[in-house]
Design goal:
The structure is a single chain. Helix 3 (173-183) packs across helix 4. The chain has a single domain (2-215), classed as Ribonuclease Z/Hydroxyacylglutathione hydrolase-like (Metallo-beta-lactamase, Chain A, 4-Layer Sandwich). It has 219 residues and is an alpha/beta fold. The chain starts with a strand and ends with a strand. It has helices spanning 56-62, 76-79, 173-183, 200-209; strands at 2-3, 7-13, 16-21, 24-28, 43-46, 68-71, 86-89, 95-98, 101-107, 114-116, 119-120, 129-135, 138-142, 160-164, 187-191, 214-215. A seven-stranded mixed β-sheet has the order 1-2-3-4-5-6-7, with no helix packed on it. Strands 8-9-12-13-14-15-16 form a seven-stranded mixed β-sheet.
């Protein structure tokens, strides 16, 4: 998929995204990268430490000594031994700039997805991240693993939103449609299905419900 400004978007698998703008290559939440044609990464953005988002073995396939990794703090112990000169750890509300790309960490957490009574899979206090990146004045939101949360009301002017739809650990299709209503992105892409949990039917259900949003199913 290509959005205006010549930004090419590829949803690779589950929650992994590759974004390319001319010679700039950005990966989000690399996981199960098997195609040897994948290009070296200038930037890798990691939402949190879970294996389907932060995979050191997959990182090794795309990083170079020049790659900059932007990650939540829980990821540092998993990736600090890689031959990377720059690892920038952000908490929600913090931001960083790499060349002409601005990267802002935003909250991502569960409200109603429980692994045990009173224990959600992604607690707010863990400070896991979603991200908004701005490139060539285009704002792209990758929600990470999250439910619909109040902080979404403060995320504005989104051109493209990646929203999880599979339930269990993240928003259901119905909740993702609610998030789309709050965020009002120009385009939404469903993700987080097909491997760990969920199927394409969740993406199709989201598209059916998010009637005021241009939903593009890429997997």
């Amino acid at each position: 998929m290509e959005i205006s400004g010549g930004i090419k978007i590829h949803l690779l698998v589950h929650d992994s995204v590759r974004l390319k703008k001319k010679d700039l290559v950005i990966y989000w939440d690399h996981f199960r990268l098997t195609d040897q044609s994948y290009e070296p990464a200038d930037i890798v953005i990691i939402s949190h430490e879970h294996f389907d988002h932060c995979s050191p073995d997959d990182l090794k396939k795309v990083i170079t000594p020049k790659t900059v990794i932007v990650a939540s703090n829980q990821c540092k112990s998993l990736i600090q031994d890689l031959l990377i000169k720059q690892i920038r750890c952000l908490k929600p509300g913090e931001s960083t700039a790499i060349e002409d790309v601005n990267i802002e960490a935003v909250p991502a957490y569960n409200i109603n997805k429980f692994k045990a009574p009173g224990q959600v899979f992604h607690p707010k206090e863990d400070l896991k991240n979603g991200y908004v990146i701005t490139i060539d004045k285009k704002r792209i939101y990758h929600a990470g693993d999250t439910d619909v949360i109040p902080e979404m009301n403060a995320i504005k002017n989104i051109d493209l939103a990646f929203l999880p739809v599979s339930g269990t650990y993240v928003m259901t299709a119905e909740e993702a449609a609610e998030a789309a209503t709050i965020l009002k992105p120009k385009v939404a892409v469903p993700y987080h299905y097909g491997i760990v949990v969920g199927t394409r039917k969740d993406a199709e259900r989201f598209k059916q419900l998010a009637k005021e949003t241009d939903v593009q199913i890429l997997l």
